[in-house]
UniProtKB/TrEMBL annotation:
Pathway: Purine metabolism; IMP biosynthesis via de novo pathway; N(2)-formyl-N(1)-(5-phospho-D-ribosyl)glycinamide from N(1)-(5-phospho-D-ribosyl)glycinamide (10-formyl THF route): step 1/1. Catalyzes the transfer of a formyl group from 10-formyltetrahydrofolate to 5-phospho-ribosyl-glycinamide (GAR), producing 5-phospho-ribosyl-N-formylglycinamide (FGAR) and tetrahydrofolate. The active site is at residue 106. InterPro entries: Formyl_transf_N, Formyl_transf_N_sf, GART. One of its GO terms (molecular function) is phosphoribosylglycinamide formyltransferase activity. One of its GO terms (cellular component) is cytoplasm. The record marks 158 as: Raises pKa of active site His. Pfam families: Formyl_trans_N. Keywords: Purine biosynthesis, Transferase. It comes from Dictyobacter vulcani. N(1)-(5-phospho-beta-D-ribosyl)glycinamide binds at residues 11-13. This is Phosphoribosylglycinamide formyltransferase. Residues 2-195 form the Formyl transferase N-terminal domain.
Amino acid sequence: LRLAVLISGSGSNLQALIDAIENQQLPGVEIALVISNKAHAYGLQRALKHKLPVAYIPWKKREEAEEKIASLIQLFQADLVVLAGWMRILSANFTAQFPQRMINLHPALLPDDGRDTYTTSDGSIIPALRGLHVVEQALERGIKVTGSTVHYVIPEVDAGPVIGRAEITIEEGDTADSLHEKLKIQEHRLIVEAVRAHSQHPPCSGSTCRCDLSVSE
Ligand code: GRF
């Protein structure tokens, strides 16, 4: 399974994938290329350090950028597109080219069915937070549990079949920064587990999903 990893920033989730591959935790998986819409994304340095092909595609006109990204994915023969901290909304035209071949990591808990609420493992019903700034939103809404989700990408933003989730408890005194740091530690395991699940049973979601994580694990 060849991955195209799309990033916009620090690339710590990309690093988790690189490490898992180097430590033989993802047999049969390799990173074909890393694409960033930001020239100075630290994730590009991480990729170069591991001698991975990288591309910087500026996001001036979405259509042009998407065309370039799609050509690169084809040229580098990537089978799965991984949005790991990718901060741009992709058009329906683009996403339609990768049905069940593109996954997104989102720093909030999302339901299986596009509903507006999510029921946590302890039974509380929380809003499904979509879009940007959801870590801040979790704090503002005063919810007690949040987490991250990996799901297949469909044209609707932050919707689509869920591959896996990791829940975490929001502690009193958590700030957006402290909460995001804790989420990222979970995400680093989650993204690896989600890629593993897809590599073993593509497409992997719903009852076939085997990669839900929780803090206690
Ligand atoms: C992650 O928390 C991801 O959920 C969000 O952006 C962050 C990316 O972090 N969409 P990194 O670039 O992988 O370090």
